[in-house]
Design brief:
InterPro entries: FANCE (IPR039685), Fanconi_anaemia_gr_E_prot_C (IPR021025). This protein has one domain: Serine Threonine Protein Phosphatase 5, Tetratricopeptide repeat (Alpha Horseshoe). Helix content is 65%, strand content 0%.
Length: 195
């Protein structure tokens, strides 16, 4: 709809107010899919800041409150949004999931699925750099495994940081099968880069 061009003319605080007024954070998921398809067609593209505000308003509460696998509508909306605005999406959602205490099993599965199937290589590297900024935990190991599963060539500085992090935190994972699988994956996928 032409009215959506207003999204390009809002300040971040105005955009938050508009999202609140439209109750986008709690709108039915089929409408969320339609709204995200409209965003794909929006021209010009949203600014980074506006896309970050929308990522937070549309998805943050939904993703952090997942207690079971996301619905197909939510997955379609997430996939659609992150295909167009991967960096603001990762900065808002991935960062929030990483900082969330506790197991977060559904959030971890969702992140793995996004890394494996939706994100472009540069966005996968962004996810990896975000993970390496926080202390490793059991819930993050499958996400790292998904990153390595993409078989992308990592920039040397990112690979060095990954190897250093795995070495430094090894004592904390002395009985972890996931950690052992991750180290094996690093040695397998990056064997030409790891000495």
């Amino acid at each position: 709809p032409p009215e959506l061009s207003i999204l390009n003319n809002c300040s971040p605080s105005q955009l938050e107010g508009l999202c609140s007024f439209l109750q986008l954070s709690t709108c039915p998921e089929p409408f969320l899919v339609r709204f995200c398809s409209w965003l794909l067609a929006l021209s010009p593209d949203l600014s980074y800041t506006s896309a970050a505000v929308l990522a937070e308003q549309l998805f943050l509460r939904r993703v952090l409150s997942l207690t079971q696998a996301p619905s197909r509508h939510l997955m379609a909306a997430l996939t659609s949004f992150c295909s167009k605005y991967p960096h603001p999406f990762c900065r808002v959602l991935v960062a929030a999931v990483l900082q969330e205490p506790g197991e977060g099993a559904e959030q971890t599965k969702l992140m793995c699925e996004l890394v494996e199937e939706c994100l472009e290589p540069h966005s996968v590297q962004l996810v990896l750099s975000q993970i390496l900024e926080v202390p490793l935990s059991e819930k993050l190991l499958p996400v790292l495994q998904a990153v390595l599963g993409r078989q992308e060539v990592l920039p040397p500085e990112l690979l060095d940081l990954l190897v250093l992090t795995l070495c430094q935190q090894a004592p904390a994972f002395s009985t972890s099968l996931s950690y052992a699988q991750l180290v094996t994956a690093v040695l397998t996928v990056c064997h030409s880069q790891v000495s």
